[in-house]
Amino acid sequence: MKQLQKYLNNIDGKGYKAYKSIQGSYKFSDFQLHVDYVQGDPFASPSRIRIIVPNNARPIKNEWKENKQRRVYVSDRIARKVSEAIQKESDKAKGSGKSGLIYIDSPGQEILERTAVLLGENECTICLSIGLPANGRRINGREAERLFLKLIPSILQRSIFSISDKELRESAQLADQHIEIRKQMRENGWIVFIADGSVLPRESGISNRPLKSAVPFRSPKENRVEIMIPHREKPLSGMALKQGINLIVGGGYHGKSTLLHAIERGVYPHINGDGREYVVTDPYAVKIRAEDGRQITSVNISTFINDLPHAQDTKNFSTENASGSTSQAANVVEAIEAGAATLLIDEDTSATNFMIRDARMNALVHQDKEPITPFIDKIKQLYNDLNVSTILVMGGSGDYFDVSDNVIMMDHYLPHNVTKEAKMIVEKYPLNRTFHVTDISKHENKRVFLPNSLSLRKGKKKRVQARGLSSIQMGETLIELSNVEQLVDSSQTNTLAEIIRYLEENSVLKKEWTLMELLDYLESVMEEMGLQELSQYPGKHPGDLARPRRFEIAACFNRMRTAKVK
Ligand code: ADP
Ligand code: MG
Q1: Which of 238, 373, 410, 499 has a CA positioned 20 to 30 A from the CA of residue 50?
Q2: Which residues of 506-533 are buried (b: 16+ CB within 10 A; e: fewer)?
């Protein structure tokens, strides 16, 4: 600490580059500071430091680290606490560029595995980014001293050194409860569980916080279950949706999409107080939507689309500019290729001609002239042959009554089970259209990507970098992810960019992989070695990474405009 003070004194007033000399490690009374990376100028991306707090300075009980989930939840809680402390402590940045900035990659409403706080055997590592202070391009050593010797220690005082055991225990207990809910869901074949009292709607279209005036969720009695979970005396009651075909109907503005959104997000755990902390979805559930304009690379969409004009091959379909229906078909096939077990579909974001074609249209435009076999004709086969369930929001057409196992009607934001009524209507008004049944197991999509086609082009600008939540700059092309709705945190996008770089740097792509094998491989790297394994700075501040699911990794590969398939 004295050493750092001396360095800062020496370089005060010098050109910004002189900051490079503070790179290194410093001992403070109750933590160790590592300055891993020093920014080149006050406007460049901030410097990266790590704070290592040994267990004897702030004991983190072994029981809070006893399994992966508990570790993830407890480190998430610490990261939130640090973030709150930064907000309280940081005053207005003084000086040029990013001078005085202090930043931790703070979590949103979801609890994701991330690198912001890492719990080791004997220590807790906190990864921060800071803007080293300057006036113009001259070092402001006094402000730097205040930042390192005053602000950061008091942020740590307010967070890691004062967070109560109770808070950490609560997080560990939430992890236990989620583990148990997931276990019971698997045992019972439930793909969704939504506890009574949950708050599904969000404050606004741009806020992920709960809507305060919301009507709390109440399960319909036909779908109501009660489960016992740890750290809670009374059973938890709520709605369970079983595997199979679940249809959500109801009038416009009665809360259908809100329910589906909550289900989509339920693949990730949420913090206490979010309103969705007991909304749990099959982690293999994937949102499917139309996404016109996307790249498609050699996908077998022939289950849904055949005989396109100009004899385009749909068994091996590629385009740089997909239509609504072809993009939605590709999204279904690719999700299944990556291992999806549940598909989540909302009419609001679907291509109508992909979802339905009624009897009258069938009569006018004969099957031979229509390339699309609508999803309604395949939904049962997907379940019967491939064991892929669907949860579908459809307020505009009753055709799906025929094929649904369970029909939920949203009425004034509350769900009712109307399966019986729907089936009676099916008898009363039969469809008069034949379902187009083919053997879909023959249409399997098992692509082998050409070695190196997923990596950066040689020679050109070799850089891969996330640009916010929804795009990645890869060399000279952009990977567009804004319609990948279950990508929820920009640090997940950072990880996707790191994955691309990692595969290249470790020559992983020299050999041939099916997509499935590649996803399995990447998941095993993250599971066994931790996210920081993917970082380009081994042993240092790993960058702000959060773990994406295999489906979002697949979505990234699938949208690369450079990819080629054997
Ligand atoms: P739908 O898809 O049926 O047309 P939405 O799900 O889009 O309806 O919901 C319409 C509006 O109602 C949204 O503004 C949403 O925030 C609000 N809303 C949804 N569920 C609730 C609820 N439980 N309590 C209060 N408002 C809700
Ligand atoms: Mg809607």
Answers
A1: 499
A2: eebbeeebebbebbeebeebbeeebbbe
